[in-house]
Design brief:
By secondary structure, this protein is mainly α. The protein has 14 helices and two strands; from the N terminus they run H-H-H-H-E-E-H-H-H-H-H-H-H-H-H-H. GO terms for molecular function: metal ion binding; prenyltransferase activity.
Length: about 300
């Protein structure tokens, strides 16, 4: 973390959040694009409600900073980050639905299905998911079409069957939603449901930078460690956090009967695991020298966050 003070890191994080917000605002405007027939107002309002004015934009930040290691133009990285953020926001809309986590609050506001209705929320999530792949294939991201192909394929795999969506169904199975007593692999669920999108934020920079195999592996290892640290920190916040700071009810995992890192490792064991993961993340990107300072700070931010 040497070379990046907490205040400098916070400024960089806020700057990327502001830039991502502005970019998403443009991407979610009412302007009709080529090959689109219309942008229905109710749908666009719902998509904007759930993707603007909220969040730390950590995932786009990881794209921007991992790409910066290779000197990639910020505008290109921000587009990839916006695509990733659309996937993340869609997942939150669907996670909050009555059939999933049945949440009333998100970022201190009513969840989308509470603000509107279930059907609108489902379709807004579908819209954001689809828009993500429109964005990530755009020519402005990279002149090499193969780079755009690799970014798109990686995003599909991190977001889909073998990533976030697969992790979600394993999580529901762990709650006993489908009957039976399936074994619960918390680490595997985390790697898929939460970790996969965070990992994508890191490997996207390597793909944009046409990194060597060694460089790609370094960012992959970093992303995996950061993703697990993020989930453990989230589990700890659910036990120890303040609902006002979280913007959603604390204790939700216990109420749903979820098995988490905290239930498996205990609070102190979970905190030690986070410390071990921080060391792993730091080591993984040490091959980049000073260029990795912001990424090392990001891992510490993830581990120490309060919401």
């Amino acid at each position: 973390m040497t070379g990046t003070s907490p205040s400098d890191f916070a400024k960089r994080l806020d700057k990327t959040a502001d830039d991502t917000e502005a970019l998403l605002g443009r991407l979610l405007s009412d302007d009709i694009l080529h090959d689109e027939i219309a942008r229905p107002k109710r749908l666009m309002d719902a998509m904007r409600y759930s993707s603007l004015n909220g969040g730390k934009r950590l995932r786009p930040f990881l794209v921007v900073e991992s790409a910066a290691v290779f000197g990639i133009p910020r505008e290109a990285a921000l587009l990839v980050g916006a695509a990733l953020e659309c996937i993340h926001c869609y997942s939150l809309i669907h996670d909050d639905l009555p059939a999933m986590d049945n949440s009333d609050l998100r970022r201190g506001r009513p969840t989308l299905h509470k603000q509107t209705d279930d059907a609108t929320a489902i379709l807004a999530g579908d819209g954001l998911l689809t828009l993500a792949f429109d964005i990530v294939t755009r020519d402005e991201i990279h002149r090499d079409a193969n780079v755009r192909l690799l970014l798109t394929r990686a995003l599909a795999r991190c977001a889909g069957i073998g990533g976030m969506v697969g992790g979600q169904i394993l999580d529901l199975a762990g709650e006993g939603r489908f009957g039976g007593n399936e074994p619960i692999d918390v680490a595997r669920i985390q790697q898929m449901k939460t970790g996969a999108l965070l990992r994508y934020g890191c490997i996207a920079g390597a793909l944009l930078g046409q990194a060597s195999q060694k460089e790609y592996q370094a960012l992959d290892d970093y992303g995996r460690a950061l993703g697990e640290a993020f989930q453990i920190a989230d589990d700890l916040l659910d036990v120890e956090g303040d609902a006002a700071a979280l913007g959603k009810p604390a204790g939700a995992d216990a109420a749903l009967g979820k098995t988490t890192f905290v239930t498996q490792l205990g609070i102190e064991g979970a905190k030690q695991r986070v410390r071990d993961l921080l060391a792993r993340a730091d080591s993984a990107v040490s091959i980049f020298g000073d260029r990795a300072a912001v990424l090392q700070a990001a891992a510490r931010f993830v581990a120490e966050r309060k919401n």
